[in-house]
């Protein structure tokens, strides 16, 4: 091959192979003084071919200024050879290197990062394959004040807003030179369109992202269906997904459970669904999935540390998952006001489906009663018998009974140290709520005084209580 006075060499799309690279590199090495620009784009050079070309870049007599290796099937190993050659030659004339459309992997991007950190490096790198990706790169660089391609973790919460911004970010994420592993997009007004753009990016470049936070965005059922496509993709490495406070309902829970059940090679180990509404079947579907995955999937459902403490305590006491139970009999199994306060936080959580609660003889006083009553509107039956509630405790119960959203049908307050004043308060509360569902009230073992029984009897006859 004769290249004695050649300054420009364009061999794009010429079916040059690894072997051809060896011949080309040998010829150029023998006479490297004239060539200034070389275009080898869209040839299947591979890492072996690039290794041969790197020998030319090692040569201190090489005058090459522009080298185009875009879409040449180069991976981590080829990037390592190129960067090594450039770093070993401080007198290199190379000013522009085009690597678009190749796959650098994590190590390749690290090598590029190391090269760009070198103060003596005057090289301009072309890495992004589309104008849309370049536009996104420019926008994010300005926003963040740093090169987004060098980041492994990116938190854009509060920095971008809406689907159009997410679409632009997705254009960058599609490129193989984007190696984000953690992405946080908390509360930035993403809807179905934004989800679709993210899913498209993750399908195009699925091998890096392991954590995605979309919390406090109104994704809707269509958005969750888009996310489910990622969960079904066996090439996706997503391990942690945060969809807390996204207004998901029973339908979306079913969609997520179905997607994860269909992908036996899923990497997902942490799913955060706090603050959503699973309906009647959502929690059960998720725990069936967790069982199917042999406990490898961690579900975050409860919205407070107190609720989690109550969950742990009840799980040990009952030997079952309390989130799957509609009836919780904790009589004598939890004790004191602190336990009652933690239980109240559990009852408040949207993932709690309990309808019947028994806390007989659990050493609950006014303080614990106040906490429980603040989150008991959805209960149909409540047993607080044999706890020293007194008049103050009864007043908190009355507040619950006066609430038109109260669903209580059965209330047991036997042996609770209730006096005449407590009876009067109960009678007043029952009378004030015309929509009350209560059909059974147990007050055995208390002290009604002279008027307590009559006041309740009048209400009982009117309300037809037992």
From TrEMBL:
InterPro entries: Leu-rich_rpt, LRR_dom_sf, NLR. It holds the Pfam family LRR_6. Keywords: Leucine-rich repeat, Repeat. It comes from the Eukaryota. Gene3D superfamilies: Ribonuclease Inhibitor. PANTHER family: NACHT, LRR AND CARD DOMAINS-CONTAINING. This is Uncharacterized protein.
């Amino acid at each position: 091959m004769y290249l004695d006075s050649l300054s420009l060499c364009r061999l794009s799309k010429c079916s040059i192979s690894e072997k051809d690279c060896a011949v080309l590199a040998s010829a150029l090495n023998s006479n490297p003084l004239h060539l200034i620009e070389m275009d080898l784009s869209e040839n299947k050079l591979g890492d072996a071919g690039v290794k041969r070309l790197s020998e030319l870049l090692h040569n201190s007599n090489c005058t090459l200024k522009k080298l185009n290796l875009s879409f040449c099937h180069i991976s981590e190993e080829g990037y390592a050879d190129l960067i090594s050659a450039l770093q070993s030659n401080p007198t290199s004339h190379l000013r522009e290197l085009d690597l678009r459309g190749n796959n650098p992997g994590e190590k390749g991007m690290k090598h590029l990062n190391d090269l760009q950190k070198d103060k003596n490096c005057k090289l301009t790198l072309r890495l992004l394959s589309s104008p849309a990706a370049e536009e996104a790169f420019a926008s994010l660089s300005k926003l963040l004040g740093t090169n987004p391609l060098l980041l492994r973790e990116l938190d854009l919460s509060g920095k971008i807003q809406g689907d159009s911004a997410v679409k632009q970010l997705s254009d960058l994420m599609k490129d193989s030179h984007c190696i984000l592993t953690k992405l946080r997009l908390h509360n930035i007004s993403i809807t179905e369109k934004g989800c679709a753009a993210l899913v498209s990016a993750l399908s195009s470049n699925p091998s890096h992202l392991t954590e995605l936070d979309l919390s406090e965005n109104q994704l809707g059922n269509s958005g969750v269906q888009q996310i489910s496509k990622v969960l079904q993709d066996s090439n996706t490495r997503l391990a942690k997904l945060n969809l807390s406070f996204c207004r998901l309902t029973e339908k979306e829970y079913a969609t997520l459970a179905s997607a994860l059940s269909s992908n036996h090679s899923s990497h997902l180990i942490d799913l955060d669904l706090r603050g959503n509404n699973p309906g009647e079947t959502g929690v059960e579907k998720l725990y069936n999935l967790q069982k199917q995955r042999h406990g490898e999937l961690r579900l975050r459902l409860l919205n407070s540390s107190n609720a989690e403490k109550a969950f742990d305590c009840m799980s040990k006491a009952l030997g079952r998952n309390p989130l799957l139970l509609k009836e919780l009999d904790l009589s004598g199994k939890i004790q004191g006001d602190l336990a009652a306060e933690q239980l109240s936080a559990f009852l408040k959580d949207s993932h709690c489906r309990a309808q019947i609660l028994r806390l007989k003889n659990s050493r609950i006083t006014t303080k614990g009663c106040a906490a429980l009553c603040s989150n008991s509107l959805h209960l149909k039956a409540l047993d607080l018998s044999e706890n020293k509630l007194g008049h103050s405790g009864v007043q908190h119960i009355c507040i619950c009974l006066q609430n038109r959203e109260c669903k209580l049908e059965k209330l047991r307050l036997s042996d609770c140290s209730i006096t005449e004043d407590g009876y009067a308060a109960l009678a007043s509360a029952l009378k004030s709520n015309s929509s009350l569902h209560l059909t059974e009230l147990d007050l055995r073992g208390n002290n009604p005084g002279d008027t307590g029984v009559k006041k309740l009897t009048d209400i009982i006859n009117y309300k037809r209580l037992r």
